[in-house]
């Protein structure tokens, strides 16, 4: 009754829960399809101020850095 081209529906809901490592692996795969990880070191005080600013304004650090990079790159063109 199922079509061969039909996408499998949430296997983890059918009685076989994912282990934490499987869940993490799938999460990483989803994230890396559209995003690139950037790791950097900044002065401790600057990082703490940035974290406080984002939290105080209800922003995520990821969204804030993404927007800053977009603005920076648009100014460079």
From TrEMBL:
The keyword Manganese does not apply. The keyword Thylakoid does not apply. Keywords: DNA-binding, Plasmid, Plasmid copy control, Repressor, Transcription, Transcription regulation. Gene3D superfamilies: Met repressor-like (1.10.1220.10). InterPro entries: Arc_rbn_hlx_hlx, RepA2, Ribbon_hlx_hlx. Pfam families: RepB-RCR_reg. It comes from the Bacteria. One of its GO terms (molecular function) is sequence-specific DNA binding. GO terms for biological process: plasmid maintenance; regulation of DNA-templated transcription. This is Protein CopB. It comes from Candidatus Fukatsuia symbiotica.
């Amino acid at each position: 009754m199922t079509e061969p081209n039909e996408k499998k529906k949430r296997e983890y809901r059918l009685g076989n829960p994912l282990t934490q490592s499987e869940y993490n692996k799938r999460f990483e795969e989803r994230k890396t399809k559209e995003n690139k990880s950037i790791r950097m070191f900044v002065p401790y005080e600057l990082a703490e101020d940035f974290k406080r600013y984002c939290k105080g304004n209800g922003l995520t650090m990821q969204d804030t850095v993404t927007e800053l990079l977009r603005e920076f790159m648009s100014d460079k063109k």
